């Protein structure tokens, strides 16, 4: 396993995230930790552990399974309900067990950490750094129309869907799920990106990285390191550059 693969492992990423959260808290807490007695010295870090667990539940379950499944109202409802319950519980514990008179700043910090945690998660998973963009050569007619009449049949939110391939912009890997972005809607289905690649019509759909497959008929700009599609910049993986270049030129991979 390479160093990059190790860093991309979900357990390693979560451990690094937790360590970063503890380190940031310790910077501001190092002058006060010795003023607390006994086990109280380490209670804030125990709460940080619980907070990080909540961030994982919020981002990986509520956000991915509800919001990305086009259920924003269910996501907002469950998130507000759980966070309100946590806030009331936090107030009771702080006021009764630790004699904290002003619990509001601590509760606000909990909400801020949740929003910040979601922001970091979204930046890490969904945003790519744009590179230099060049104009895309005119796509051959045969390539642009080869997806017409084809559909990708998959299960979305427990229901079978037949998604027209010609409407797809790009597909994105979410580990054991695939996020399919079309002209009008976003779908999330339980499938690996490799499975989707095998079922999509070629050569119109090209895999550009470990995380993305694009519909070449919908590409707006093509650069040496990225493509622009649907107003979004997607990076081309280093090991895919030659293959992508050959496909965009209309040739076959050698």
Key attributes of the depicted protein:
254 residues; five-stranded antiparallel beta sheet; four-stranded antiparallel beta sheet; 8 helices; 11 strands; elongated
Question: What features would you describe in this structure?
Answer:
It holds the Pfam family LytTR. This is LytTR family transcriptional regulator. InterPro entries: LytR-like, LytTR_DNA-bd_dom. It comes from Fibrisoma montanum. It contains eight helices and eleven strands. The strands form three sheets. A five-stranded antiparallel sheet has the order 6-5-4-8-7, with helices on one face. It is elongated, with a radius of gyration of 23 Å. By secondary structure, the chain is α+β, with helices and mostly antiparallel strands. Helix content is 46%, strand content 20%. It has two domains: 124 residues, no CATH class; 115 residues, LytTr DNA-binding domain (OB fold (Dihydrolipoamide Acetyltransferase, E2P), Beta Barrel), CATH 2.40.50.
What's the gist of this structure?
Residues 152-250 form the HTH LytTR-type domain. The protein is of the alpha+beta class. The protein has eight helices and eleven strands.
DSSP E strands, number: 11
What structural class do helix, strand and pairing data support? alpha+beta
Strand numbers in spatial order across the main sheet: 6-5-4-8-7
Count of distinct structural domains? 2
Poorly predicted regions are: 127-145
Secondary structure blueprint with pairings:
Blueprint: H1 3-8, H2 10-29, H3 43-65, H4 72-97, H5 104-126, E1 134-135, H6 141-145, E2 151-156, E3 159-164, E4 168-174, E5 177-182, E6 186-190, H7 193-199, E7 205-207, E8 212-215, E9 219-222, E10 226-229, E11 232-235, H8 241-248
Antiparallel strand pairs: 1-9, 2-3, 4-5, 4-8, 5-6, 7-8, 9-10, 10-11
